[in-house]
Amino acid sequence: MSNYWSKIARNLDPYVPGEQPKDRQYIKLNTNENPYPPSAQVISAIHSATNEDLKLYPDPNGEALRRAIASRFELSADQVFLGNGSDEVLAFTFLAFFDPGRSILFPDITYSFYPVYANLFHIPYRCVPLNEDFTLPVSEFRGDNHGVIFPNPNAPTGNAIAAQAVEEILRHNQEHVVVIDEAYIAFGGESAVPLIRRYPNLLVIHTLSKSHSLAGLRVGFAMGDPELIRALETIKNSVNSYTLDRLALAGAEAAIKDTAYYQGTKIKIMRTRAHVVSELEKMGFTVIPSQANFIFIRHPVQDAAELFRQLKEHGILVRYFPKPRIDQFLRVSIGNDAEMAAFLRTVSGLSIPYGPAPH
Ligand SMILES: Cc1ncc(COP(=O)(O)O)c(C=O)c1O
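^ thats the input. predicted complex w/ pyridoxal-5'-phosphate below
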């Protein structure tokens, strides 16, 4: 780090994305990408948008895409905000609704970008410990705080809470904004979007990265009361007016409209998940109940870091978090049937030492 770095840059502890190694071909089960291709209509929309209009700036407000999202979720366009991936929407959300010096709440085990944004923007936070079984302690999300954020389903556990439980949290936090990060909601959870009508302090964030097979296009969006959306626009227009390019806007609009295709891929992923869970349980793994396109698993004997290493050696990448409480777990994205068969074969063939379970 050189003297040229600002104090802010010097003090940052940035998010570390899942590895994308190029040294060999891996079965990639480490970043929760969707194993199925995007809808053919997305590819064709991006082709059509690849023309000389690229010399012009895109629509800064992405009106057509906002209308498509609004119509899909029975909202109005002024209840939708677009961003370059939901990570950007999350960053703007921290700036728009949380203040330096006023503490917010999120779970102790959760999406690791939240503490990164909180530190970047000097927002103090308190981590609410998940229950022993990694379920969310709903009644702990109340009291003296100035904002709440959590993913539903949670990451990296995959555990979801019912919309009724989200509503209980909203009822106890009406003085400030409650953000529900629904990156994985398509895979079995119950969305909080219908609550937007009744709770002007609710912001729900979605992404096309997982459910719509578009991690490479970078499109996320927030839904909430028009007042909240205006705050997000104010932040966005103070950073970069054109966060979504023409190709992303065209592709995302086609994706949102092709509900039949994505319904199909979602069902395939949920079926594969059920099969993998049952096979792993037969092998003695603990599997946290998942409503996401990944599972969080613990081997009865093998150390998780060692299992991670052995899988990588066999060409299978999963995610390991060397963090308190979860350092004996691995997060495994649900790939297609062939990928998951290879994963199961590899796991069952590994040489597992006998002995007492790790701590
Ligand atoms: C809980 C959660 N929220 C948000 C994101 C960000 O997704 P994207 O920026 O691709 O939309 C992720 C990605 O892994 C995630 O796990």
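The chain is about 35% helix and 15% strand.
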